[in-house]
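Ex. 9. Protein: Leucyl aminopeptidase.
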Amino acid sequence: MFTHEKPAYSVALYPLLPAAWEAFSASLSDAEQRWAKLHDFKANAGQLCLIPDDQGGIGKALVGYSADAGVRWALAALPNKLPGGHYHLVCAWSAEERLQASIGWGLGYYRFEYYTKPDNKARPVLLVENQQARAKAFVQAVALVRDLVNQPANHMMPEQLSAAAAQLARTFGASFSEIVGEDLLKQHYPAIHAVGRTSAHVPRLLTLQWGKPEHPAVTLVGKGVCFDTGGLDIKPSQYMRLMKKDMGGAAHVLGLARLIMQLQLPVQLRVLIPAVDNAIGGDAFRPGDILATRAGKSVEVDNTDAEGRLVLCDALADAVSHKPDVLLDFATLTGAARVALGTEIPVFFSNNPALTAKLQVASAEAEELIWNLPLHRPYFEQLKSGCADFTNSGGSYGGAITAALFLNEFVPESTPWAHFDVMAWNTRERAGRPVGGEAMGLFAVYHYLETVYRGD
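Predicted structure tokens for Leucyl aminopeptidase:
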């Protein structure tokens, strides 16, 4: 993937924008210009031109990229296009741009090959002289998210998600604990238990902790619904097909936790994951049931397919009791968020204007779009119940907002909180981003955390 030292033979790699092609081509020899023209190379996004040297090898590699896509993805297609060998960048990019491009290069290596024969063909290697460890940290964090989401449900039930969190804790010297099955009732996490109780894969609450107690407290909560049938309000088959990804929120917080620990961000980190299988069975929770929650609020079940917010509310109630400096949750929570902004743009809500502003700045600076939607409180009317404090599902409109408003009931205004509603899945293939599980918002959120807590 990367090398620190330039070997004796390394191919010069020139990333080019279309607007720069005419001036750059004038620097090429007549033969090189004819070769580029023969291959109709104009530095359009995704174009690659390998110019031979006089020994029959590759003398130069020219790659076109789009300013709209950003430098991070400029080289991301190349691990699948270039022949094996060593390459080094020749361009005027800044150190930060080179870092981002190397991250994209690394993500271009990603394959989910747990159940297939690995592709052992020779891959190109990029010279990264500075910040290689940082580039690898981002690549490994995103790969962790992708791997967890891509796992089929029969290999990623609550017990396997627990094992993945425990392994991550061991890797970085963090502590790990879990509350399992009936102990959820004994320790007062009734909503998590209710959603997962009918499955053979018993529900649990996973907790990972890392960092020094004197550092600012950052708490991450991730929805860990390892498969979502919809419960007794069963999903149609076309909507159930990808529900292995319903633990995508848990995958996101584990990927973000890995990045925080690997890059030694000076925070006191706490990660909470309610891990359940929303199955159908004789003891499944039902529409019309009234559930207790850890916060003492009663919830009438309007729809068993709105289960994610039920498991999250107990975890959020636990999280706020520790009074974190910031609380962030990630969840594959609503289809409404995807209707609003499509599958590739994470939606976020916040109860804190200063936190909202900082996340928006981080989104711009990290060149990863996340979009704020309002916690429009008048919509809470849709969650009214005649026999409980509120219901778990509202009307047909504004579903992402009503879901966020439900969660907001479990977070006091004194706790700065942001809720991310993510797809966690690429529905189309792009350079460095294959179809399948995906980390969404990770670059922006980590940039926010690093800016606030490291100050650089």
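Check your answer against this statement. The chain has a mean pLDDT of 96.
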